[in-house]
Amino acid sequence: MDSIVIHGGLPLRGKVAVSGAKNAALPILAATLLASGRHLIHNVPAVQDVKTISKLLTTLGARVTELGGGDVEVDTTGVERFQAPYELVKTMRASVLVLGPLLGRLGKARVSLPGGCAIGARPIDQHLKGLQALGARVELKGGDVSVSGRKLKGTHVYLDMPTVTGTANIMMAAVLAEGETVIDNAACEPEVETLAAALNAMGAGIKGAGTDRIEITGVRTLHGSEFTVIPDRIEAGTLLVAGAISGGEVHVTRCVPENLKAVTAKLREAGLPVEEGDREMRVTGSRPLRAVDIKTAPHPGFATDMQAQLMALMSVSEGVSVITETVFENRFMHVAELKRMGADISVVGNTARVKGVARLSGAPVMATDLRASASLVLAGLVAEGETTVSRVYHLDRGYEGLEKKLAALGARIWRLK
Ligand code: EPZ
């Protein structure tokens, strides 16, 4: 298992480009199952989760070809299998994203129930509620969920909470259903909006994606497509925090500032000047850093996927920051590791109280989940001495060569195989 070693204390300076969004690429690749033909997807990030879903699509009968430079061709003509095996699903719960497309394309799907994961139970009851509302039969047996239904009928679904992949699954199942479907209390994340755009590029009839009410007019068939994945807003936010925490100046390019408004607002509240261009942002890591309170929420609220990274930043701010995690029930695993580095954090329920300290000290720490890993790397950038983050396979799931990007900005950081 690889580790990443960081020697802290160096301010990062320079320009860095953001890769394609993992959480947009995964549903878009799954959506190609809906349309028999050739799909060309650009700006796909070279991350482990994309490799996993590519393997899954191949298992189902698709042909996936990496053309280089982030271009991936998916030929779904040969898709005829409808089962997503446990050995793949257990490594990536987002495999559940093939439920909707397989149901729409083949009239059936069987996916090993995604276990919970480090950050929470992460049930899929809303996904299943939506598919059932479209007329699918749902059966839970032997650790698998099976859905079946030849002719789905448009319906009205009101989600109990704005689930991102739940909205994606229901939208994908509805595009080939007969008639109109409305999803209310839908997730508004940019990744949902871009998935709808990708489906429309295949010939679907979707309106309102990106708002909490999505309207889908069923069509008879879909066709091959060409589409470009949006930049990863969480990677962009992580790189901005790297500039901020290291006291340098980082210029993030190929990003969409509009998709990071809540994070940018918090960085500015903390006293950090953030400049925005059309497709770029620049942060100056000025001091003193003011402690700010953060409460995660569904988009356009503060992204839960940026909570761990801001906690690392608040660990070296002046004052007390109260961070409340409202989306997942167990997303504070980075706290114990940050405390090993000298952070002063106390957790009660879903709230962490972070009292800024003058400095963190490098230490051996362990990654527990994707964004916790990023948080520990960020803390290592500012800590005195050497930090070794182990189990960085968590990081590799969602970041394309993060340590290389940080090294190019002047960090003393390298990977230990
Ligand atoms: C997506 O996960 C992202 N993953 C997550 O990113 C992200 O943290 C999350 O959305 C929230 O923004 C992908 O897009 C692949 P949810 P998802 O369904 O869809 C509860 C990362 O770091 N819920 O919006 O699984 C659920 O338990 C990952 O890149 C139900 O109760 O998240 C959670 O508490 C981590 N029943 C809340 O809703 C359901 O049927 C939000 O979950 C579905 C969800």
TrEMBL record:
Sequence ranges assigned to domain Enolpyruvate transferase in this UniProt record: 8-406
Record-listed 2-(S-cysteinyl)pyruvic acid O-phosphothioketal modification sites: 117
Catalytic reactions of this protein: phosphoenolpyruvate + UDP-N-acetyl-alpha-D-glucosamine = UDP-N-acetyl-3-O-(1-carboxyvinyl)-alpha-D-glucosamine + phosphate
Main enzyme class: transferase
The keyword Metal-binding appears for this protein: no
EC code(s) of this entry: 2.5.1.7
Binding site for phosphoenolpyruvate: 22-23
Keyword terms of this UniProt record: Cell cycle, Cell division, Cell shape, Cell wall biogenesis/degradation, Cytoplasm, Peptidoglycan synthesis, Pyruvate, Transferase
Keyword Cell cycle found: yes
GO molecular function: UDP-N-acetylglucosamine 1-carboxyvinyltransferase activity
Active site residues per record: 117 (proton donor)
Subcellular location: Cytoplasm
Pathway where this protein functions: Cell wall biogenesis; peptidoglycan biosynthesis
Residues that hold UDP-N-acetyl-alpha-D-glucosamine according to the record: 93, 122-126, 305, 327
Highest rank taxon of the organism: Bacteria
One BP term from GO: cell wall organization
Family indicated by similarity: Belongs to the EPSP synthase family. MurA subfamily.
Function (record text): Cell wall formation. Adds enolpyruvyl to UDP-N-acetylglucosamine.
Record-given protein name: UDP-N-acetylglucosamine 1-carboxyvinyltransferase
Originating species: Tectimicrobiota bacterium
